[in-house]
Specification:
The complex is a heterodimer of chains A (429) and B (380).
Chain A (H helix, E strand, L loop, with lengths): L1 H23 L1 H21 L8 E7 L4 H12 L3 E7 L2 H9 L5 E5 L3 H6 L4 E8 L3 H29 L4 H8 L3 E5 L8 H31 L16 H31 L7 H23 L7 H6 L2 H8 L11 H7 L3 H14 L8 H30 L1 H14 L4 H9 L8
Parallel strand pairs in A: 1-2, 1-3
Antiparallel strand pairs in A: 3-4
Chain B lengths: L1 H10 L1 H21 L8 E7 L4 H12 L3 E6 L2 H9 L5 E5 L3 H6 L5 E6 L4 H29 L4 H8 L2 E8 L6 H31 L3 H5 L6 H30 L8 H25 L3 H19 L10 H4 L6 H15 L3 H15 L6 H10 L6
Parallel strand pairs in B: 1-2, 1-3
Antiparallel strand pairs in B: 3-4
Helix pairs in contact in B: 2-8, 2-10, 6-7, 8-10, 8-11, 8-12, 10-11, 11-12, 11-14, 11-15, 11-16, 12-14, 14-15
The chains are: A alpha/beta (429), B alpha/beta (380).
């Protein structure tokens, strides 16, 4: 009992100490508060509309008949496309596309009308600018929907010419109907899937950068994140981990709730999930991120170097979350690689729970994985602290080894230092 | 000057890891991750309440498509739950009496649900299902018309009076990797160039070596910054050229124009990004803060280049900033050279834009010099 009380007291002290350190470090506060609070808003604004509408296309109408006129009018009326130019020939249209004035071309060959009259299949051509898939998608969807509609229209005319009656025709034209629903993301809105993923990713990345910066700073000042308070006499690594983790956990529970509940409310992103369930998912995720960051931040030796190496992990983590490229198409290796990051599960869990409005069962796999991850990372950060302490104790030895190695390959480290910083300044590592 | 920089690089492995290492890793990642080009065998749940030859046929046909893969479900509730979980991309319900309704001309309805939150999977599944339903319709029509005594050529004209011939300029197979790797890897290069240059210039301020850094050039800032940037420019251009060669030569990504012009684009991207990096450090000679701003700039660079969501779809006051980002100009250059192959006539404006970036560092060079000499800014 006494032990427990002391345990909590120690852990609490370490936590308070960590919080004090964070609050004294202006740069860190900037990252936590600036990045944590501003990035979510910024991304929401960028992807506010999220839908590309009225993509401009050029039309080359060599057939010039009633049917093509109707077709063009209908294309112009779709949400996806708008007719920006009517060109005399393909050259003109191609030039417009190369200038990015239009992103697609619709071409009706001269025999288009005749073929329809002759009851043959008339083919029109579309050309799409593939410099963005959304251009292609719009050109494809816009023209295809009009095509389906036109097919229906023409069929009605033909069958009635063949002597069928209204009911018969409708049965023949549409023997099987369909009803398509996209309940979670009606118009394939870019913002819905990307924003949910980015929001969760921000939590992980900001925490990781922040923690690494603090780790780096302490290294520079020859402290160590691992150094145990003297009075603990070398025991109590768990207390240190829990205490330090608790500090970040507190901060990011706040930022997390802001990101998961307040920001979506501001921008009208649907929150279909149950509040308590989403919240508990979020807190598991934050816990996971804490130990993830604690483990990996031990690799950082300088305050700023984390940006150099790990900034490019952000887009990679985004891909690994499976929000755009489907998980089923992941190469095996990268699928395993994605299990390193809490964001893989956090993004999916948040999407299933909050954006799609599932219940806990919908995020079961993700929750389990996060718990497992948390346990593993807890032990790795435990282990990292031991390694860290060993390194501190053997600093001199390592230094000598490095110098010896440098001499072996013919690098004179002292000479280097002199050239880099002059005689006046102390050595630069 | 350059020799001094090379020695610094030799001393600190983070420089090499942060530049060549990161670029190599990211190239490897994107190229192998998107290797397939287009995902196939997207799982689509089929709830078959009909259980006739027609519905089983539908199941098999969908399974046989390149894009889709059918997964059988007993009840809609199960399928719907798995869709919410993201396990399957769509659910398709074949209603009871589908077969008999078709035979009796009662126009049954096939219902499907898409999970549009998993974007690529969802939209591909949607496309596949639409196609399947239309094919089913066509098959029924053909049967009826055959019974009415039309021949196959007539029937084809009747059920498909209009057809579309699709041409995808610059990417005939809708290969995601062509566009995404083609843009994301240069984006990562720009990111590394930005961060490394800020870091290495900032390190002089931070460790108080900036005065010494200025000495060989006799206190003039131009050669000092130039000497610092030269090894980086050379190194990253070499890496960049390798990437271009890798993409458009060895891996055979389609390119309408010439690889040489893309070398130029890559060089312009790298140098103009360096100019922005120098400007950022001039305005904020505090290494840590400058790096944070550089990071922000780098991630915005990716969004505002507009190769995923085109900038036309962004709010106007965001789109207004697009020209500030070098990657945007690289993207425009890319679309003209790689997609259309217009050559100089198409992209000269982008070159002008890139060159304008070169003048940016002049704005604050005095400020940086003062900071270097007085070292009067916080160091961390």
């Amino acid at each position: 009992m006494r032990f427990l009380r002391k345990w909590f007291k120690d852990a609490f002290e370490i936590m308070a100490n960590e919080l004090r350190q964070i609050s004294r470090d202006g740069g860190l506060l900037l990252i936590f508060l600036g990045a944590g609070l501003v990035y979510p808003l910024l991304y929401n604004v960028i992807y506010w509309n999220g839908i590309l509408s009225e993509t401009p296309v050029a039309v080359v109408d060599d057939a010039d008949c009633q049917l093509t006129h109707r077709y063009i009018r209908e294309v112009d009326a779709t949400r996806e496309l708008s007719i920006a130019a009517k060109c005399m020939n393909m050259d003109e249209a191609v030039r417009l596309m190369e200038d990015r004035k239009v992103n697609g071309i619709i071409y009706f060959p001269s025999d288009f009308g005749e073929k329809v009259e002759r009851m043959e299949t008339a083919t029109l051509s579309i050309y799409a600018d593939m410099s963005s898939f959304l251009y292609y998608k719009n050109v494809l969807i816009g023209t295809n929907f009009v095509m389906l509609h036109e097919i229906g229209q023409i069929q009605v005319e033909r069958y009635s010419a063949a002597g069928m009656t209204g009911k018969e025709i409708s049965q023949l034209v549409k023997p099987v109907g369909y009803d398509d629903n996209n309940p979670f993301n009606r118009a394939f809105d870019y913002s819905l899937f990307l924003i949910s993923a980015i929001m969760m990713l921000i939590i992980q990345q900001v925490m990781f950068y922040g923690m690494s910066m603090l780790a780096g700073t302490q290294r520079e000042r020859n402290h160590s994140i691992a150094s145990l308070p003297d009075k603990l006499e070398g025991h109590g690594v768990v207390r240190v981990i829990t205490g330090r983790g608790g500090a970040y956990w507190l901060i990011f529970a706040g930022i997390g709730m802001y990101v998961a509940f307040i920001v979506p409310a501001i921008f009208g992103i649907p929150q279909r999930g149950d509040f308590v369930q989403t919240l508990s998912m979020l807190l598991f995720y934050v816990t996971d991120c804490v130990f993830f960051s604690m483990t990996w931040s031990t690799l950082i030796t300088r305050r700023e170097s984390v940006f150099l190496i790990f900034l490019s992990m952000s887009p990679i983590c985004l891909f690994l979350s499976g929000c755009s490229w489907p998980v089923i198409a992941f190469p095996k290796f990268w699928k395993w690689f994605s299990y390193i990051f809490p964001s893989t599960f956090g993004v999916q869990g948040f999407m299933n729970l909050s954006t799609a409005g599932g219940d806990m069962a919908a995020a079961q796999v993700q929750m389990r994985s996060m718990v497992l991850q948390t346990i593993i990372y807890f032990f790795t950060s435990y282990f990292a602290i031991f390694v860290e302490n060993w390194v501190i104790r053997h600093k001199e030895e390592i230094r000598e080894r490095q110098d010896a190695l440098a001499k072996k390959v013919g690098i004179d480290r002292e000479e280097d230092n002199r050239i880099i910083s002059g005689d006046s300044t102390a050595s630069v590592r | 000057m350059i020799r001094r920089e090379l020695r610094i690089i030799r001393q600190r492995p983070v420089y090499i890891v942060g530049s060549v290492g990161v670029i190599a890793f990211c190239s490897l990642f994107f190229l192998s991750f998107l290797q397939k080009g287009l995902p196939d065998d997207i799982p689509i749940g089929i709830v078959d309440y009909d259980n006739t030859s027609t519905s089983r046929n539908f199941f098999q046909q969908l399974d046989a498509t390149q894009i889709g893969q059918s997964v059988p479900y007993e009840t809609f509730a199960q399928a719907r739950e798995d869709m919410t979980r993201g396990k399957i991309s769509a659910v398709c319900v074949l209603p009871e009496g589908l077969n008999s309704d078709i035979q009796a001309n009662r126009q049954p309805k096939i219902t499907f649900y898409i999970n549009g939150l998993y974007f690529v999977g969802g939209s591909l599944a949607w496309k596949d299902l639409l196609q399947m339903v239309n094919l089913t319709s066509g098959a029924v029509q053909r049967q009826v018309l055959r019974m009415k005594g039309y021949n196959d050529a007539q029937i084809m004209g009747m059920i498909r009076p209009v057809d579309i011939d699709t041409h995808q300029i610059g990417n005939p197979d809708t290969n995601y990797s062509f566009l995404l790797s083609g843009m994301l890897i240069p984006a990562v290069i720009a990111m590394c160039v930005m961060m490394i240059l800020i870091y290495s210039l900032g390190a002089e301020l931070k460790f108080g070596t900036s005065r010494h850094h200025l000495m060989p050039s006799g206190g003039s800032m131009g050669p000092a910054v130039g000497g610092k940037a030269t090894p980086w420019t050379t190194g990253s251009s070499a890496t960049g050229f390798l990437v271009i060669l890798l993409l458009y030569h060895w891996l055979g990504f389609p390119i309408a124009g010439s690889v040489w012009n893309m070398f130029l684009a890559m060089f312009l991207l790298i140098t103009s990004t360096e100019a922005v990096a120098i400007l950022i450090l001039e305005m904020i000679p505090i290494p840590r803060l400058a790096l944070s701003v550089g990071a922000l700039f780098s991630v915005l660079n990716m969004s505002l280049a507009g190769f995923t969501l085109p900038t036309e779809a962004m709010p106007r006051f965001i789109k207004a900033f697009e020209s500030m980002f070098p990657l945007r100009h690289y993207y425009l250059f890319y679309s003209k050279e790689v997609v259309f192959g217009t050559g100089f006539a198409g992209w000269w404006k982008e070159v002008v834009a890139f060159i304008i970036f070169y003048f940016l560092p002049l704005l604050g060079i005095r400020r940086l010099k003062n900071a270097c000499i007085n070292q009067n800014f916080p160091k961390d």
